[in-house]
Amino acid sequence: MNDNEELKDGAVLSAVHDSMSGLRMPPAPRLDAITARGRARRRRMGGLSIAGASACAALVAVASLAGGSGSGASTPALSAGRTPQHQTVPARLAAFSVVAGPGGATTLTLYPGQVIDPNAVRQALAAHGVPALVTAGQFCRTAVQPPPGVGDVVVISPRPNQVVSGGHPADGLRSGPILTIYGSRIPSGVKLSIGYRQDSQNREISFTLIVADAPLTCATIPDNGPHGDD
Amino acid sequence: MSHEKTEFAEFFQASWEPCLKAVVASTGSVQLAEDQVAEAFARAWLSWRKVRRHPAPRAWVVRTALNAGASWWRRSIRELPLAGHEAVAPRDIDEGLNATLLTALRHLPDRQREVIALRVFLDLDIDTIARHLGIAPATVRVHLSRAVTTLRHELSPSQAMEAD
Fold it and tell me: Can you say how many angstroms the Cα of residue B160 is from the centroid of all Cα atoms in its chain?
């Protein structure tokens, strides 16, 4: 590489740097919020670790309950009494809803306090043209995260840890996470992996793009930190 | 406040913005990046004794944020401290992003994009990036060079043609 090329490279890197320089970034959260989040994470990890195999058993129980033959009030059921036949027909379920929105978007809403049948969510999303892997109690990914960025495909609302002006954090808890999914932006051979976990204290949803048919790595928490030096 | 927490607080305050920019450059979304970086700092606090000895703690945060994907998590109301700045209407901050550049960045392979983020926004040198990623410095240079070449072509096709 000669000086001229290095100069050109520097110009490109400067352009990348400058592209962010004028951007108003959100201020840092309060330190207490970060450390509290860390402590809660430790509690969750500890709880999961202590629970051990019983967590798996619980998941099986959840899956059995959700996939059962209608026993129990928490079993997802079509409130309209029919299966979605067309993209424009909203599927309104007890534990979640999948609704077609403008611009080819699909809105997935998960309602708190309900047992979610991952297979039902997957089928509802598939009916709206969204290829997805949906898992309850575990979070799955492939070794390679294919493009585009997951931010191109999914938008969460309300914002994490945020309430709108005049709102109350309870509002977010009652309504549950709302995911707006742009299925048309998912390339062929790629799926959206959605993991969901809920207990009496916490609800967590994590999503990432995965390579269809590639080996999956699943964990009970969406912990995918740096490898090798942990 | 303990010495350990004071040290982490200083790191957090000084590193939040550069780490956020690096992740925004990779994800293309300020909204998602904000949550991912917050989660990464929470994990850094949990592992602070290890992270503080890392050759590039900011790089650790960025990599953790990028690997975390995107997640939504909310604890019970009683346990959730809401910072004052959080109680505001959602910002249209993403609209200020350079869409062309971000698209070009996201078309890069993961490793090239990560090298760019570490080099540009965290100002890490080649050797530090290499140690952090566990690859040879020469490999870092190759990733960087390929990424720059791709970006140059995508950002300024006419200029690239002249250079060719």
Answer: 28
Tens digits of per-residue pLDDT, A96-116?
888 887 778 888 887 766 677
- Alpha-carbon gap: B122 to the closest alpha carbon of chain A (Å): 10
B49, B51, B75, best to mutate vs chain A, most A CBs in 10 Å:
B75
Cα A141 to Cα A192: distance, rounded to the nearest angstrom: 9
Closest CA to B113 of B44, B18, B28, B55: B28
Stretch among A43-57, A168-182, A211-225 having the lowest mean pLDDT: A43-57
CB contact under 8 A, B5 and A156: no
Compute the radius of gyration of chain B from its Cα atoms. 18
What's the rounded Cα separation, in Å, for the pair B63 and A229? 12
Closest CA to A40 of A202, A173, A209: A202
* Contact between residue B72 and residue A206 where contact means Cβ atoms under 8 Å apart: yes
Q: A112-158: per-residue pLDDT in tens?
A: 666 778 899 999 999 999 999 999 888 888 887 787 767 678 777 65
Spatial separation of the C-alpha atoms in residues A51 and A103, rounded to whole Å:
44
Strand order in the sheet with A203-211: A132-136, A190-198, A203-211, B70-74
Task: Taking each helix axis as running N to C, give the angle between helix B110-120 and helix B99-106, from 0 to 180 degrees, rounded to the nearest 10.
Answer: 130
Of B31, B72, B86, Cβ closest to residue A204 = B72
pTM: 0.53
Q: ipTM beyond 0.85?
A: no
Determine the 3-state secondary structure of A206 from DSSP.
Answer: strand
The one-letter amino acid code at B163 reads A
B98 neighbourhood in chain A, CB within 8 Å: 19
